[in-house]
Amino acid sequence: MPVVALIGAQWGDEGKGHLVDLLASKARLVVRYGGGNNAGHTVVNHLGTFKLHLVPSGIFDPATVNVIGPGVVVNPEVLLSEIKDLEARAVSTAKLFVSERAHVIMPYHVMLDQLQEESRGEGKIGTTGRGIGPAYADKMSRTGIRVADLLHEETLLNRLRVVLEEKNRVLTRLYNAKPLSLHDTYLRYLDLGRQLSDHISNVHPIIHRALEKDFPVLLEGAQGSLLDVDHGTYPYVTSSPPGAAGACQGAGIGPTAISSVIGVLKAYTTRVGEGPFPSEIEGPEADVLRQIGMPWAEVGTTTGRLRRVGWFDAVMSRYAVQINGIDTLAITKLDVLDTLETIKVCVGYRLHETQLEYPPATVAVLSQVEPIYEELPGWQTPTSDIRRFQDMPEAAQAYVARLCQLVGARLGIISVGPGRDQTIVVNEVF
Ligand code: IMP
C-alpha cells in the first residue's frame, strides 16, 4: 500500500513543499497532519510561485484530494484567505477538506503567544507568534474549540463562554491587555465557520477509503523533527510532533499503513528562532548559503526572518532518521553549494574529552558541544540544469553519497532548484 510520509528531518524549511508539489501529481490524496500557519511552504510550478501555510501543497493538481487533518491547528481567517488567493489564481479548492476534529486557533491564542514571548525576555523561544503553542496547550487541557464547533451555534457559545472568561482573566490581570468580547468573538467565529462550511468534513472516511482502495497517499509534514515537542531541542521546539509518529496521529492512520518515510534534508542546515545549533556559521561564509535575493533565499516564508545557516549536521540528521524510521532521503538545495571550494560536514560532537554520537537531551549541554568536521571537496560547477544522477559532477555525487552513508538511509531524490522539474529522482517514491 503506497502511503508515504514526507517529513522534515532538520529544523524545518527543508523544502518539503517543493517535493509534495512534485509527488502530489502521483498521489490521489495528500494529508497535512500537523502544525498550523507557523509553516510556510513555497511552491514554484507551472502556475507561478505560491506561499502556502495551511493548504496542503497537493492543491495544484486538480485530481488530488487535499485534507487538513485532525492534528492540525487551523486559523480560519488564514485558511479562508489562502483559499481566496488560490481561487483568484485559478487553482481549484473544490477537493480541499478540513477535519471537524482539528482545533481552531482563536484570537486569544495569538495574543497569548505574543505576550508570553515578550514576557520571556532573554529566554524567548522565537516562536512565529501565530498562536500555535497556546492552541495546542488548550487542546491538551481540553479547553480547545474544534472546527466542528464552529458549525454548532449552541456548542460554540457554551464553550466560548467558559473559555473566554478564563482567557480574559489572564489577558487583563497577568498581561494588562484588553479583554475579548464574547458577543463579537462568537459572531465572528460563527461567520468564519459558515464561510468554511463547504470544506469542513469528517475526513476519516475520505482517508480510509483511499487506504482501502490502495490509492497512493502522501502525508505532508510541516516543521522538522528537531522541532518535535518530545524529541527536539526542548524548549526551543514547536508544540506538535512533526515526525512519522505525528503523521499517524495527526492523520488518523495506523503505523502499519505507512509504506515509506521520506526524510527531507537540506544539503546544509538552517534554523529560524532561538535554540542551539552546533554547526551554525556566521559571517561571509554564511551569506553564501543564505543566497540573499535568490529564489531560494534563506528568508522564512511565514515570518520573513533571516534564517540562521550552518553546515550539514550528520549527528542531528541521523538522530532524525532513527526516531522516524526514515528509509529514503530527499536532499534539497544542493545547488546552493555549487560555488564552494570545500564543504564541511559535522560528523560528531566533542564535549570536553568525550566524542558524542547522539545529540544530548538538554540545551545546556548541547550548547557546549564542539562540532567535529569532515571536509569534502566542492564541485564548483552549476547543477541546476542537471536531471540525472550520473550527469552530476563526481564531487557532488560523492557528497550526497557521504550524507546518506552518515545518516543511514538510501537516496531517493535530489533537488537542484526551486522549480518542480529541478529534481533528480534516483529512487521512485510512488
Ligand atoms: P511556533 O511553532 O510558532 O510555536 O515556534 C516554535 C519554534 O519553531 C520557533 O523557533 C519557530 O521559528 C520554529 N518553527 C515553527 N514552524 C516552523 C517552520 O515551519 N519552519 C521553521 N521553523 C519553524
Number of strands: 21
Pick out the low-confidence regions: none
Biggest sheet layout: 10 strands, mixed
Give me the Rg, rounded.
Answer: 21 Å
Characterization of this structure:
The chain has helices at 16-24, 76-88, 107-120, 132-141, 153-174, 182-196, 204-212, 244-251, 284-290, 314-324, 363-366, 394-407, and strands at 3-8, 29-32, 41-45, 48-52, 65-68, 73-74, 96-99, 103-104, 200-201, 217-224, 260-266, 269-271, 280-281, 308-310, 312-313, 328-332, 342-351, 354-356, 370-377, 410-415, 423-425. Helix 3 (107-120) packs across helix 4 (132-141). Helix content is 32%, strand content 22%. A hairpin with a 2-residue loop joins strand 3 and strand 4. With 430 residues, it is an alpha/beta fold. It has a ten-stranded mixed beta sheet with strand order 9-7-5-2-10-1-11-16-20-21, with helices on both faces. Strands 15, 17, 18 and 19 form a four-stranded mixed beta sheet that branches. The radius of gyration is 21 Å and the shape is globular. The chain starts with a strand and ends in a 5-residue tail after the last strand. It has two domains: 3-90 and 203-425, Adenylosuccinate Synthetase, subunit A, domain 3 (Adenylosuccinate Synthetase, Chain A, domain 3); 103-196, Adenylosuccinate Synthetase, subunit A, domain 2. Inosinic acid is lined by residues 11-13, 38-40, 125-128, 130, 132-133, 222-223, 227, 236, 238-239, 272-273.
